[in-house]
Amino acid sequence: KKFFVCHSSQIAIVMAHINLSENTKLENEKEPIPEEDAKPENAERREFMIKAGSVCLGGVVAIPPIAAGIAVLMDPLRRKQGDADFTRVTLLDALPEDGTPKKFTIYADKQDAWNKFPNTAIGAIYLCRKSDGKIDAFNVVCPHLGCAVVFRESERDYYCPCHNSAFDLETGTQAPDSPSARGLDSLEVKVENEGEVWVKFQNFQPGIADKKAIV
Length: 215
Ligand code: FES
Hints:
The chain is an alpha+beta fold.
């Protein structure tokens, strides 16, 4: 078996050799084939060089479309998810005026590397309307290990039943005897268009003291 490696300079040499061979062939139509060229081993060598040139040229021509195809296929993996956007959650009038928190599921268009999932539940929040008109928003995910907290009417706080973490209703700060390393994760809120409540929903990494968004 014969193995070979193609380089552009070698392709040029091979193609030049092919042209030379073709020219020689035309000349040979007029003149008798030289005795040296007529030898079987030289004819075999010439045929091998022509085939090698064709294979190399085909490989070079095929590289750009193959590379472009791979780039398109890998493109979604190279895209990075952007920052969280604000989501319209509810109307201001839907929130109790006495400061009792109300839970809302957050829906958004979700996307993985190749697919889009429109209007999918991506989490939940508590909204709490204060007497001064300010609105607090907390992600329901417990910062300890990721269970969901609930509003405890009897204690007027947020509570996680998994490992008994409790959080202040006003500030979200964890109670001193709670295993959670930080308070509830607050979210940005804005009121627009005469009473629409918009929240910048994000999830944060549980189990650490710092509030670090999951991107
Ligand atoms: S997950 Fe909430 S206290 Fe452990």
